[in-house]
Fold this sequence. Notes:
alpha/beta; 2 domains; 11 helices; 11% strand
Amino acid sequence: MINFRFHLISLIAVFLALGLGIVVGSTVVDDAIVDRLERDIDEVRTESAERTRENDELRDQLATAERYTEDVAPFAVEARLAEIPVAVIAERGVDDDRVGDTVDMLRAAGAEIPGVLWLEPSWKLEDVEEVRALKEATGATGSKVAARALALDALATRLVEGPPAAGEAAESGDLIAALRSAGFLGYDGDDAALAEFSARPARALLVTGTRSELGQDGVTLATARAFAEAGVATVVGEVYEAGDENAPVQGATLAPIRTDDAVADQISTVDHLDVVAGRVAAVLALEDLGRSVVGHYGYGSDAGGPLPEPQS
């Protein structure tokens, strides 16, 4: 007769066998998983190294293309804007080095530029004191939106018509000087040249960008609209800086202009002033405006291509 002790020993043996099986099985599985993971890691490392090599090659190709563009740019823009006054207006926050590079390109094309006027953040009119200061400096009236529009219209008219005559200047003063004094305009350049700018109708380049302190407040579109209504041949350029993954897409700061039918038919845009090709495009676009040819250039949405088409 089989007693309880025999059953107990049998049960213990069964559990020991199961435990040993689990241990052995898990060891085999673990080794298989480790081997698979090691193979996957090796594949990822190989692919990463290949992508790094390809990216390095692309960077080298882009650098070579940029150097080539820099070398040929002076020939591409030579005399395109000979003796043509160009007012350069930039929004504060935009990379001033890229603005300076753009001014250099315009001057290489022969443009007459006294310096760079900077639209200051006070144009956002975030408090009543700024609204009051703008009205006092320009004589504008109405709501803050209406006052800003009237002030920008007056600025555009001042740039296209030139400084006031001697008698008028003594009576009312120069608008640019008043806006500078009130904190709405900054200026980098020759003061005497600015005071005399310009005896002839000027063209204008308005520079905005992804880091502009004004682009999200409707100031860019309001300025473009004012210049269009004043009959100023104007190009609006974007200095695009990709930044992090939350940065806007290229051309985003120009979208309000490009999608506004009235303004888009009168003002040209360039969304790549951050590279040499974009600065060349700005020169060619300003030249084309002398022939009443309007276009939108770059790589963002609604751009027709990186450069204006050659004109016969």
